[in-house]
Amino acid sequence: MVPRSVFRAPHLRACSVALAVALLVGFATLGETAPTPKTPAAPRSNQAKPPANTGQSAIDQAKRLIDAEQPEAAAVMLRRFIEGGPGPDLLDDAYLLMAAAMYGMKEHAETIRYVNQLLGEFPNSDLVDRAKLLLAKTHARAGNLDLALPLLSEVRSLSADPAIKRDALRLTGEFQVQKKDFLRAIQAWLDELPLDVGDQARETETQIRELVNDKLDAPTLMRVRDAYPKTFPGDLASIKLIELHTAAGEDHLVERDVRLFLSRFPNHPYAAKAADLQSVVRTKFKSHAYSIAAIFPMSGKLAPFGTEVLNGIQLALERTKDGGETPSIGLIVKDTESDRAAFLDELSAVLSDDRPLAVIGPLLSKNLPVMAEMAERTHIPLITPSATVPNLRRFGNYVFSTALTYGHQAKRVADYAVKEQQFKRFAILYPDTPYGRDLARLFAQEIRQQDGEVIVSEAYKEGDTDFRAVIGRLKAEDLKKYGVEVQVDNDPAKTGIRQGAGKKGKRLLYSPGFDAVFIPGRSLDVGLLAAQLAFYDIAVPLLGTNGWNTPDFARVADRSVEGSVFTDGFFTDSTSPVVQEFVERYRKRFQATPSLFAAQGYDAARLAVEAIRRGATSGEAVRDYLMMQHDLPTLSGPSGFNPDGTLNRHVFLIQVKQGKFVPLE
User: What is the CATH number that goes with domain 218-401?
Assistant: First the structure.
């Protein structure tokens, strides 16, 4: 007979490990078919209760049946026991065992019913936490992981029993794996480790190792590596990335990963092998006739953007290999975030020792001055694919940019509005951010240069949802010039329109004095703004910039954005054969859709490679080629660099049409 204390007392849990596993974890192996149990009857007050020892015997026998994977027999016995009206000291045991039997029979609704009966009648029972674990497992088995996980979180927070906390963490990890939220799964199992006893810790660590080695793709491995930069399993994720990139022949990524690993885990058992691999990769680098360097954040918060640029660079180099007409070009990758203190020294060493013919980077404008100074000193061109700072020539003659600048966008949308649409008067609503302020200023400048007029320019706070005050100021300024308000009949019976009534059934109808509104903001804000502009009778075309270009904007935004036009430097649905070839190759290579960062990185590398293909064998020669040619091969068509060092790239015009983005060209 299994004593009741084994079922309840944490310090005796080891006496019945098999029973606990069967009750809380192992029911997935039980039989597929089972008779549907009857609804449990409430105890009858006039019914004689069984003697205590008889009741305990029934509980113990039911436990043994469940342990022996005979839930049907256990359910029959427990039903009779519950109908016999046992005392409250055994009824909560009976409810939990009955729920366990129902779980074993895959009767999910009945499992939930008995657990809820226990929780409702015995909220202070010491079986409550285990009942919640069983309830979480039931929800998970039914596919309701979002119901299961909060229960486990509650048990982890409130239970004082280490064994129960451990079970909750173990289940949390398993359920997060099912949701493919691998980082949360790993963290749950790491939190479990201090609670493990005996061989459990080794089992948990093995589970983490198997997850990292067998189920994670490269982007997820990078997230794990960055989440645990100097501890397990960050080391394991780093090693797995090195192996993946070695197998793929991506030497530039191998060199980056090895360098990062050795800086974080210098005394790791794998360090010697990593150092040997680093020597092999460096030897292979020296075998290339020429090289270019890529300098980006490959770890930390900006890593996703750096990775997208690097993907574009890699695709440009692979395209060169396919052609077979270009000398062998190696790629040196440096992570600006791995060791900030030593980064400039490393970059200086690369420029002096490896002598790349071009450096592609940096990502941010703030890093441009110091890198530009090094490029000028070593006569090696620096091509930034994303820094939007204007007038690059103030940094020297070796600095170039393939980025979409604010000036590019302002000029393109202004040309479209004035020259193609014949608009003359404009209102501007812009977010009070550097991006919004600069674009508002540049757009107004372009409009005035083309003899247009900016009636009003108003700022709003990014993230706001109520723009009444901003729109009110816009209307007030417009009414001082060209806007008109007239009273109209507000009788719904006549107009069919229900709006706020003015005096005597009249309302003021506003007619804007401007032809369009320019909104250089985020898509989320623009969708809300557009709807509120329409509500206040401002039904004019809306113009915007690449902040609008998000996947859900056209589908989710109010119909008030229909027909609106915005600009961007890259459009995956462009009809251009060059763009479509790039998009197809990128998706095939990286299983993702390329972004503007990837496209600008591709252009930067493509231009450096083209200079080498045309015979440039030094940094000075690459610089001269980029400065002199005006038909350089870019994704948006033949182009050249402006006198200020920015690529005169084509800017796409994109329209919102019937819930989709469509090109206007």
Answer: 3.40.50.2300
Report whether CATH 1.10.238.10 matches the domain 4-214.
no
C-alpha–C-alpha distance, residues 478 and 511, integer Å = 10
Is the CB of residue 436 less than 8 Å from the CB of residue 430? yes
Domain 406-568 has CATH 3.40.50.2300: yes
Domain with CATH 3.40.50.2300 in the chain: 218-401, 406-568
pLDDT, tens digit (0-9, with 9 covering 90-100), for 500-554:
444 456 778 899 999 999 999 999 899 999 999 999 999 999 999 999 998 778 6
For the chain, residues classed under CATH 1.25.40.10 are 4-214
Angle ∠(89,95,100) on CA atoms, nearest 5 = 135
Average pLDDT of the chain?
87
**Predicted pLDDT at 493:** 52
| Single-letter residue type at 234 | G
pTM of the model: 0.71
Task: Using pLDDT thresholds of 50, 70 and 90, give the confidence band for residue 53.
Answer: low
Residue 410 CB contacts under 8 Å (≥ 6 apart), including other chains:
439, 442, 443, 445, 446
Amino acid at site 556: V
Closest CA to 448 of 409, 405, 410, 408: 410
DSSP 8-state class, residue 645: S
How far is it, in rounded angstroms, from Cα 555 to Cα 375? Answer: 45
CB atoms within 10 A of CB 160: 8
Question: Which whole-number Å values give the CA distances from 570 to 486, 541, 646, 651, 659, in the listed order?
Answer: 44, 23, 16, 7, 19
How far is residue 527's CA from residue 533's CA, in Å, rounded to a whole number?
10
pLDDT at 252: 82
The whole-angstrom separation of Cα 316 and Cα 252 is 14
Residue pair 626/397 in contact by the 8 Å Cβ criterion: no
Collapsing DSSP to helix, strand or coil, 453 comes out as strand
pLDDT at residue number 38: 35
Are the beta carbons of 347 and 362 closer than 8 angstroms?
A: no
How large is the average pLDDT for residues 34-49? 38
CB 297 within 8 A of CB 257: no
Cis bond leading into 51, ω under 30°? no
Digit-coded pLDDT (tens) for 345-368: 878 888 988 899 999 999 999 989
pLDDT confidence of 25, banded at 50, 70, 90?
A: very low
pLDDT reading at 271 higher than 90: yes
CA distance 299 to 446: 39
